[in-house]
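Weekly puzzle thread! Below is a chain. First person to post its structure in token form gets bragging rights.
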Amino acid sequence: MLATLIPFFDKDMKVCAYSLFSQRDNYLLNPAMQGSARNDGAATVSGLDIIQKIGIDTLSPGTDVFVPVGPISVFSDIESQTGSMRGRLVLLLDDAIQNNETYQKRLTQLKQEGYKLAIRKLPVSAFEQNKEILALMDYIILDCKKVDVKKAKIYFSKLYPNIKICVGNVDNQEMFDYLKDDESFWLFEGRFYRIPITKGETEVAPLKVNYLELMNIVNDKDYELTQAADIIGRDTALVVELLKVVNRIAINSEVTSIRHAAAILGQKELKRWINTVITKE
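Winning reply:
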């Protein structure tokens, strides 16, 4: 299983949600599996085991996790698969969903059971023919490269005022700056600040979990330097990079510990350094 947690940010660059991308087989290493008739687990919600390994409480408190469900897996026993995570999961549909009575009843049932719903990859031309489906959604993710999100927000504010608009595929700072102060847009996702939390075939990589914890900590305006320093201390690569930076600053001072190094940088500069280092990864 290969899986990645992609963060969604608000206008202040604070992580407020994650989107789960998972692939049961690594087709880059095993291209022969692509297009085969092999059972791909379509009747299960793929990637939930990754969240269970991490522990959903490891993620920033109050954040939602968007979990893709397909036109088959939406009818699976989602309730038993998700367990206690239900309150923080958003079931993410796409344009493969069909607007008919069977799907409408199932989605209504899931909402009544406490699940939140979202949809993505829905072209503008399909908005009208999916009115009943859209009326059940809590969120919609709009690709700003394919949809004029400024026009789309007018459409949704009139017909679906309770739906939260998330803007995806924001590729650069200029586009983010153009959109971020528009209160119609709830969250943003894009390559220029994407920080994938990648998991291996069977084990959760502790290095990436450290990065995730650091991001969660520095999201707080008044975070504890010592707490961030202790997490940095778990990872040799982060320690080396931090000491390189601090040694250039503290030329006449001996750095005695990771906590000391963090204190030399201070809250603001340490947060900036953490964001830079993680983005590079």
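Puzzle host: Confirmed. Bonus trivia for everyone else. The first strand starts at residue 2 and ends at 9.
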